[in-house]
Design a protein that fits this description.
The chain is α+β, with helices and mostly antiparallel strands. 25% of the residues lie in helices and 29% in strands. It has four helices and 13 strands. The strands form two sheets. Strands 1, 2, 3, 4, 5, 6, 7, 8 and 9 form a nine-stranded antiparallel β-sheet that branches. The protein has a four-stranded mixed β-sheet with strand order 10-11-12-13, with no helix packed on it. A hairpin with an 8-residue loop joins strand 6 and strand 7. It starts with 6 loop residues before the first helix and ends with a helix.
């Protein structure tokens, strides 16, 4: 009787054996080290050390707790966390078989304001990564931690040169996929991206419950009412305008007080409508000016005729 072997199971078992036995060559990393006064009298690049990790989606994090200067000032403090993850052994993006990003917190902008990762080989051939960061002067004897399930870490923490354009430039970003509440007043929806200040139920991209103070607000609009000055524009008669106001108690094309109380006010649209009314008023004033000048001319003719009659 012939026995059949499940080829897929055999391949999966072989792959698992290779992955786990390959990873067993690496130890778990849980390293804590000193920043070692790596920067003193000026800002400089620092080589933190070398991270050796395999492919197959191995992740590592490096946390740096330091700052710029150590005069006991809170404004000198800063901390940074770098996340790095290798690929599947074949995928390469922009020449690198890994990706990384970092987040920063604290007070001083000069604390770890740039990070670069330099692999020891191109693409998926890389097996180790030199970690560099740029920091302000007097980093002090702060600490850093490296954690990873599979890998090795070689401490350096010494001043170095910029690793250059061939290194991976790590972006700084902070992203959350959660409903986010900050300082008890700012809310960001993880569902639709709406932002609320003073409210946790924003119904628009930005909702503010309270006053807003600003030095400048810019609203983009289309259909700006320069058409009022066009030759084909129908300017309502004053009598028709008077009748409308008497009936509706507000200007044509302007929302009523009841509508505003119920629906609110679109600032961009309202500015456009108000400008339309200002331009219409300008045309009315021009018409009145022409009529006044015509009446003045007639009055002068009458006055001249009367003067000649008296003479």
């Amino acid at each position: 009787m012939m026995k059949y072997i499940n080829v897929n199971r055999l391949l999966l078992a072989l792959l698992s054996f290779l992955i786990f036995n390959g990873q067993s060559l690496f130890a778990q990393i849980n390293y804590t080290g000193s920043l070692n006064h790596a920067t003193l009298g000026g800002s400089a690049w620092v080589k933190a050390g070398t991270l050796a990790i395999p492919q197959q989606g191995v992740s590592a994090s490096i946390r740096i707790y330091g700052g710029v200067g150590f005069n006991a000032g809170i404004d000198q403090m800063g901390s940074t966390e770098l996340f790095i993850r290798t690929g599947n052994g074949s995928s390469v993006v922009d020449g690198f078989a890994f990706s990384a990003y970092a987040t920063r917190t604290g007070r001083h902008i000069g604390a770890v304001n740039a990070i670069k990762v330099l692999p020891n080989a191109a693409g998926a051939a890389a097996t180790a990564y030199d970690i560099y960061f740029y920091n302000g002067s007097y980093i002090g004897l702060g600490s850093y931690q490296v954690t990873c399930a599979y890998g090795t870490w070689t401490h350096s923490m010494t001043p170095a040169s910029d690793p250059g354009a061939s290194a991976y430039t790590v972006p700084f970003e902070f992203r959350t996929l959660n409903e986010t509440y900050l300082a008890g007043s700012l809310f960001i929806s993880g569902t639709n991206g709406n932002v609320g200040i003073g409210t946790v139920t924003p119904k628009a991209k930005l909702a503010v419950y309270g006053d807003i103070f600003a030095t400048k607000v810019k609203v983009t609009q289309t259909g700006w009412p320069d058409y009022v000055f066009g030759k084909d524009y129908h300017l309502p008669e004053i009598s028709a305008l008077e009748q409308y106001i008497s009936t509706h108690q507000h200007l044509p094309e302007i929302p009523s007080a009841t509508e505003v109380a119920k629906e609110g006010l679109d600032l961009g649209d309202m500015n456009k409508r108000l400008l339309q009314k200002v331009e219409e008023l300008s045309l009315y004033i021009i018409q009145l000016d022409k009529k006044n000048k015509e009446l003045e001319s007639r009055l002068k003719l009458v006055e001249n005729a009367n003067r000649k009659t008296i003479e």
